[in-house]
Specification:
- The protein has 221 residues and is α+β, with helices and mostly antiparallel strands.
- The protein contains 3 helices and 12 strands; from the N terminus they run H-H-E-E-E-E-E-E-E-H-E-E-E-E-E.
- It has helices at residues 2-9, 33-64, 155-167; strands at 70-84, 87-100, 105-118, 121-128, 131-133, 137-141, 144-150, 169-184, 187-188, 195-203, 215-216, 218-220.
- The strands form 2 sheets. Strands 3, 4, 5, 8, 9, 10 and 12 form a 7-stranded antiparallel sheet that branches. Strands 1, 2, 6, 7 and 11 form a 5-stranded antiparallel sheet that branches.
- The longest helix is centred in the first third of the chain and has 32 residues, at 33-64.
- The chain is elongated, with a radius of gyration of 41 Å.
- The model has no long low-confidence stretch (mean pLDDT 86).
C-alpha cells in the first residue's frame, strides 16, 4: 500500500515529447540574373557614349562656332527656251556664288554635279571642277546648260509653258549634288552628300520682263 501511495504522489507528465523539427525554407536570391546585369551594363555604356558625344559636339561648337555655307544665284542668261512638240531646246548660263563664312573651317568639294530641271524633268547634268574652299572665302560656279531634251508634258504643264512663254519668265530649277569634307586644322571629316536647290524664275534675254534678282539657294540632306 505504501509503494502504491508513493507512486501516486510522484509527478507524472506522460511520455516524453520529441523536439519539433526545424524546417528552414531555402532563401530566394534577389536580382534578375546575369542577363539583367549585362543589360544594365550595356545601358550605362550607351548613356555614357551619348553624354560624351554630346559634350564633344558642344565643345566643338563653342570653339569653332560653325556657320552655314551660303549659295546664291547672282545672275542667269537664258538665250533660248523653245518647246517644239515634245522637244525642248535650251541655252542657260548660271552664275553661282559659294560663301564660306567660317574662320577655322575649310571645305573640300570632292564632287560637284549641276543639274537643270523643268517641270520636275531633268534637262542636263554637268560635272564641275572639284576645289578646296578656305576660311572666309567666296568661290564661283558657272555651269552652262545647252542642248535639247525630250519632255513628256501633261496638258496642264503645256498650258503652264505657254503662259510662261507669253510672260517671258520660266520656272527652272538648278540643283547641285555635292560630296564634301570639312577641314578643321589638320583634321578632315568623313564625306557628306548634301544637295543644294535653287528654284529660279528666269527671264528670257529677248523678253521685256523684269531683270533677274539674286536668289538664295536651300540646303537639303
Amino acid at each position: 500500500m505504501a509503494d502504491k501511495q508513493a507512486h501516486l504522489n510522484g509527478a507524472y507528465y506522460g511520455p516524453s515529447v520529441p523536439p519539433a523539427a526545424n524546417y528552414n525554407r531555402p532563401s530566394r536570391r534577389s536580382g534578375c540574373g546575369c542577363g539583367c546585369c549585362l543589360l544594365k551594363l550595356l545601358l550605362k555604356i550607351i548613356i555614357s557614349l551619348v553624354v560624351i558625344i554630346g559634350l564633344a559636339v558642344l565643345i566643338f561648337w563653342l570653339i569653332f562656332r560653325p556657320k552655314e555655307v551660303k549659295f546664291h544665284v547672282t545672275d542667269v542668261q537664258l538665250s533660248e527656251f523653245t518647246l517644239d512638240n515634245t522637244t525642248l531646246r535650251y541655252n542657260l548660263a548660271v552664275n553661282i556664288t559659294v560663301r564660306n563664312p567660317n574662320k577655322r573651317i575649310g571645305i573640300h568639294y570632292d564632287r560637284i554635279e549641276a543639274r537643270a530641271y523643268y517641270e520636275d524633268q531633268r534637262l542636263q547634268s554637268l560635272p564641275l571642277t572639284p576645289f578646296y574652299q578656305g576660311h572666309k572665302n567666296t568661290s564661283f560656279l558657272n555651269p552652262v546648260f545647252t542642248g535639247e531634251q525630250f519632255l513628256r508634258l501633261a496638258s496642264g504643264e503645256v498650258a503652264d509653258y505657254n503662259e510662261e512663254r507669253i510672260s517671258g519668265v520660266y520656272s527652272i530649277d538648278v540643283k547641285l549634288y555635292l560630296r564634301i569634307r570639312f577641314k578643321v586644322g589638320r583634321v578632315r571629316t568623313s564625306r557628306f552628300r548634301p544637295r543644294i536647290e535653287c528654284d529660279l524664275k528666269v527671264p528670257l534675254n529677248s523678253a521685256n520682263a523684269a531683270p533677274f534678282t539674286t536668289k538664295r539657294c536651300d540646303w537639303d540632306y
